Amino acid sequence: MSQESSSGTATDSPSQAPSASPRAIRKLSARRRPEVVAVLLFSGGPIFESSIPLSVFGIDRQDAGVPRYRLLVCAGEEGPLRTTGGLELTAPYGLEALARAGTVVVPAWRSISQAPPPEALDAIRRAHEEGARIIGLCTGAFVLAAAGLLDGRPATTHWMYAPTLAKRYPSVHVDPRELFVDDGDVLTSAGTAAGIDLCLHVVRTDHGAEAAAALARRLVVPPRRSDWQTGQRHLDRSLPEEIGADPLAEVVAWALEHLHEQFDVEALAARAYMSRRTFDRRFRSLTGSAPLQWLITQRVLQAQRLLETSDYSVDEVAGRCGFRSPVALRGHFRRQLGSSPASYRTAYRARRPQDEPERPLPAQELPALRRGPVSQILAAPAKADPETYTSRVSEQQGRSEVADTSGVAARNRLRAARGLGAALPGPRDRPVG
To answer: pLDDT (tens digit, 9 = 90+) per residue, 234-254?
Structure first.
């Protein structure tokens, strides 16, 4: 688990810079050493997330200009500890070792539906009270929240679990769009790759940009990721697991399937046979989000997908996402994604490799809410109707090449010359739900 990783990062997590105004860090207790990092492991934790702080803080790289940390790998509960892959681990230290650490890292928690061990929560609280810096990577944020360390603070976690974190701990200001959040003495990160980013941020904070850059070179990862580098941010379509069994699930499913129509929260409340006030309260208690904000986010997410997968103009995208005007789309899009729709499309296409095939847009762009527990609502590709597909292919083949700005006709001629069969539909010929 202590081997260095030579692979690049996969940005499966939301990309954003740290909090601009972190809180002041408490004075560290005399018995705690700032260079000592305790990593708290639990049984059932994913090995990749667990190995990130071990690799960053547990390997001596002073020859590369990286200051050395002293790593204490601690068991958060009675062993043996087993990872998600079935490997059995033996941690050399227990919870008592946290008393010496200036930094405590919780790399992951095995299940967002389970409560962490009370003894571990007490040890984390004690470390925080004595000035230690507490870090939660990915689902480790649930452990910090259970300890009460995130109350009234900004925080993030993996975007898929952010709604559950917000619902279960309403006093936590959860933002799933952040790559990581530095709130001074408490820090949290999003998904797997974001854990690397946060650990590099800690090294940069402790020892400067050169040390962090040297470590990034050894790990073969970017020294710093931010919006202006990636040009992309990601929005969350997920909902808490419990919503699948709630009567509001049908209303949510209807909303997702009809985002192209213009309706408001009043219409959703009417479909739920509730007053607006009752609907707002029930929706917020169930999802941790106000219904209006959730609806706007879903419309922006739909616009994001159309900008990536179609050639519709911004005005057309606005209409297909239920916005009353392109001005409304641009305003909400910029507030949530930090760029204009046109800039987003340009950046997305610039980042996509030239030989990467265009992603087909599903016939039903938005999914129906599946029955049972739902931890994530994703668009599931639907098969296009064969007759509709054939008619569109024939219609496209009859168009003049002069009007074909996407180069489809040229590709079709090439396919025919190579004996590859039927022509390919262009971006504008793809069915849109």
So the answer is: 454 555 555 555 778 888 888
Least confident of 117-131, 141-155, 269-283, 355-369: 355-369
Nearest partner of 82 among 106, 110, 104, 107, judged by Cα: 110
CB 311 within 8 A of CB 430: no
pLDDT digits (tens, 9 = 90+) for 161-215: 888 898 899 999 998 878 899 999 999 999 888 999 999 999 989 998 888 888 9
Counting beta carbons within 10 angstroms of the beta carbon of residue 255, is it exposed (0 to 12), middle (13 to 18) or buried (19 or more)? buried
Instruction: State the pTM of this model.
Output: 0.57
| Token duo for residue 138 | 């990915």
DSSP strand pairing (88-89 vs 81-82): antiparallel
State the Cα–Cα distance between residues 199 and 216, nearest whole angstrom: 10
Distance CA 16, CA 179 (A): 4
User: To 5 degrees, how large is the angle CA 421–CA 424–CA 429?
Assistant: 150
Compare 60 and 238 and report the one with higher pLDDT. Answer: 60
**C-alpha of 62 from chain center:** 33
Reference 433, options 307, 315, 321; nearest CA is: 321
